[in-house]
């Protein structure tokens, strides 16, 4: 039985065992996500169990198309709410989150690239900042990992990731505007 | 399965156990999958994958699922449970009926006792000397009356009767005669009590027994 069937079956029967089968494969990833935000082993473990408890009711009401994405957003919101409850300050990278949302929206549209698109990309790469352009080139064109890029450029490892994420986003905006004839 | 695969990839990635190509592939994947990216960030913050925490979590989840199944089982009324319940109910009703049956005769017995008490009052007699009787019972007239009340059956429709008798040297009454010809059972009872249980002073006596 695949994930979608399990979801439908749980929604109709409310059998916790089915929910357990759905949830178990994601527990280790969820624990990682929770630890990222809550930064404590016990709290993160409790959070993973609490998220499960909330799903018991939520999944009986909501029709979920893509369980993995839905679960991720739900878990992240849960962690952020927990942090808010504790009145601790948490810095969430807005750029990063924005990129994710855009990705989700655009994921469905698979387009074929023409000669013109490659030209546009070349032009757009020039518009990026020096650091972003260098990281994007090394990551996507030369297929290097973050560590190699950090070694080659001398940038901090976390900065490399950020340059790639932001560079990718800027590149996308630039490409789309050129495609629309601006 | 896929989950374990991803977890071991994250573990290898964080500990630098991957080739450059594998690292690049995971990083590209994570750029498209924020779930994976956040999990990598979390495990990196934790300095690696903690398998103990994860197996603890798996245990907690299976316990939770089991608990629910047991709870559901407790409230699930299958035909077997219903049958057992029905049998228990029938047995309970039967026991109640048995108790009631046992209790009801007790009530009747209480009524019977009341009747007996009334009989007791009916059985009371008083005795007195009549005529020129000089003789008297040892212990007094009252004791004699109590003796008679106690030992005769109480079955009589007579109001009173007169007895005459003589007394031997040991003080025992003999030659007992009565002014009543019938009521043989009563007469035998009274004569028996007088002869065997009463002792007298004097030679002869005439007494009147009044049944209250």
From TrEMBL, chain A:
Homology family: Belongs to the sigma-70 factor family. ECF subfamily.
Organism: Sphingobacterium wenxiniae
SUPFAM superfamilies (alphabetical): Sigma2 domain of RNA polymerase sigma factors (SSF88946), Sigma3 and sigma4 domains of RNA polymerase sigma factors (SSF88659)
Name used for this protein in its record: RNA polymerase sigma-70 factor, ECF subfamily
Residues passing through the membrane, by range: none
InterPro entries noted in UniProt: RNA_pol_sigma-70-like (IPR039425), RNA_pol_sigma-70_dom (IPR014284), RNA_pol_sigma70_r2 (IPR007627), RNA_pol_sigma70_r4_t2 (IPR013249), RNA_pol_sigma_r2 (IPR013325), RNA_pol_sigma_r3/r4-like (IPR013324), WH-like_DNA-bd_sf (IPR036388)
Domain RNA polymerase sigma-70 region: 22-88
Pfam (any one): Sigma70_r2
Keywords: DNA-binding, Sigma factor, Transcription, Transcription regulation
Residue ranges constituting the RNA polymerase sigma factor 70 region 4 type domain according to the UniProt record: 119-171
GO annotation, biological process: DNA-templated transcription initiation
Gene3D superfamilies listed in its UniProt record: 1.10.1740.10, Winged helix-like DNA-binding domain superfamily/Winged helix DNA-binding domain (1.10.10.10)
UniProt GO molecular function: DNA binding; sigma factor activity
Highest classification ranks of the organism: Bacteria, Pseudomonadati, Bacteroidota, Sphingobacteriia, Sphingobacteriales
Automatic annotation (TrEMBL), chain B:
UniProt keyword annotation of Transmembrane helix present: yes
Transmembrane segment boundaries: 82-101
Protein keywords: Membrane, Transmembrane, Transmembrane helix
UniProt protein name: Uncharacterized protein
Organism: Sphingobacterium wenxiniae
